């Protein structure tokens, strides 16, 4: 399910207005930066813009028809003049940008118009970013760029200065929770999904994802056994956690889910029960809140954030989780 202009206008009215005006006035910039939190629809909006700019039968001067050959090929990722660059592993490498520049030095296959979208643009290596900068410094009037990022502060200021920045805002959690519930997500899962994404399509996919449902159960179980002895927690890691959270992105999700549990317990201490993302665990968390200090909860949340940082630094995942278990139980750090 791809984004429509109606979706964009509802979810990101400011971004929609800016982009629509630029199309209708024929003042589309040669480079845009779509910035905002994860799940706010930036990537989908960049694909919508690609369809709009290449559509052969625009409706009302800005709505792509969805049925012409260009719209269909962009939807399936097969348009010869629309290129999407994504991280290769942990980063976007200079070879990827050089390949893009080589491709764009040729004439367009079907017209002179060419468009490229760089996903997670903050993950460009320094050499890749400098290579892209040369590209942006010599803009071709028929070449357009969309840089998509969750962390614009990590992008070179010289690149930022050559892009028109458009901010994508997160919906307030309570509004997004209601939106999820209106689309069939139950009241127990909706707050947790809203804490992970602000994108409706992504939220609905999480709701129907068996892996995510199982992840929630495993994380809650680990939290429970962490209150017992270290052996139980290590056994739980071996039996369930390691086999479920296999890939780095999955492990990062698991750590996020775990962090949100400790945040909920802190919310109970602060009398903010209405903001829990695990509302069905309120009774359990009430007991835990009485037995733990806010300082200890803060230390535990810091330990999880540190584990997330180390995960991105390529520490061995098994060692990382074993250390985290000890830290959450108040044991020593050995990495």
TrEMBL record:
UniProt catalytic activity: DNA(n) + a 2'-deoxyribonucleoside 5'-triphosphate = DNA(n+1) + diphosphate
Cited InterPro entries: DNA_pol_HolB, DNA_pol_III_delta_C, DNA_Rep/Repair_Clamp_Loader, P-loop_NTPase
Keywords: DNA replication, DNA-directed DNA polymerase, Nucleotidyltransferase, Transferase
SUPFAM superfamilies associated with the record: P-loop containing nucleoside triphosphate hydrolases
Documented EC number(s): 2.7.7.7
Gene: holB
One GO term of the biological process aspect: DNA-templated DNA replication
Nucleus listed as a keyword: no
GO molecular function: 3'-5' exonuclease activity; DNA binding; DNA-directed DNA polymerase activity
Protein name: DNA polymerase III subunit delta'
Species, as recorded: Lederbergia citrea
Enzyme class: transferase
DNA polymerase III delta subunit C-terminal domain residues: 247-328
Any one GO CC term of the record: DNA polymerase III complex
């Amino acid at each position: 399910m791809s984004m429509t202009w109606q979706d964009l206008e509802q979810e990101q009215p400011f971004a929609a207005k800016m982009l629509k005006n630029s199309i209708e006035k024929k003042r589309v910039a040669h480079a845009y930066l779509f910035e905002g939190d994860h799940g706010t629809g930036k990537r989908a909006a960049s694909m919508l813009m690609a369809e709009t700019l290449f559509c052969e039968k625009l409706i009302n001067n800005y709505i792509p028809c969805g049925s012409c050959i260009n719209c269909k090929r962009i939807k399936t990722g097969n348009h010869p003049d629309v290129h999407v660059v994504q991280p290769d592993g942990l980063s976007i490498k200079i070879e990827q940008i050089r390949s893009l520049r080589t491709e764009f030095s040729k004439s367009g296959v079907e017209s002179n118009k060419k468009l490229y979208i760089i996903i997670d643009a903050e993950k460009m290596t320094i050499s890749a970013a400098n290579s892209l900068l040369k590209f942006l410094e010599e803009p071709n009037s028929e070449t357009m760029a969309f840089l998509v990022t969750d962390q614009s502060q990590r992008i070179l200021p010289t690149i930022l200065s050559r892009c028109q920045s458009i901010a994508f805002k997160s919906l307030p959690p309570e509004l997004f929770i209601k939106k999820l519930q209106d689309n069939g997500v139950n009241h127990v899962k909706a707050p947790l999904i809203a804490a992970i994404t602000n994108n409706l399509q992504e939220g609905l996919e999480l709701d129907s994802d068996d892996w995510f449902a199982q992840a929630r159960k495993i994380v809650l179980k680990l939290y429970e056994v962490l209150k017992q002895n270290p052996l139980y927690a290590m056994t739980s890691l071996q039996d369930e956690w390691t086999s479920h959270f296999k890939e780095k992105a999955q492990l990062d999700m698991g750590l996020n889910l775990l962090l949100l549990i400790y945040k909920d317990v802190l919310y109970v201490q602060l009398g903010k029960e209405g903001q829990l993302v695990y509302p069905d665990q309120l009774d359990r968390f009430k007991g835990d809140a009485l037995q733990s200090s806010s300082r200890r909860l803060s230390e535990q949340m810091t330990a999880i954030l540190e584990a997330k940082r180390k995960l991105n630094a390529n520490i061995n995942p098994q060692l990382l989780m074993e250390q985290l278990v000890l830290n959450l139980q108040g044991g020593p750090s050995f990495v």
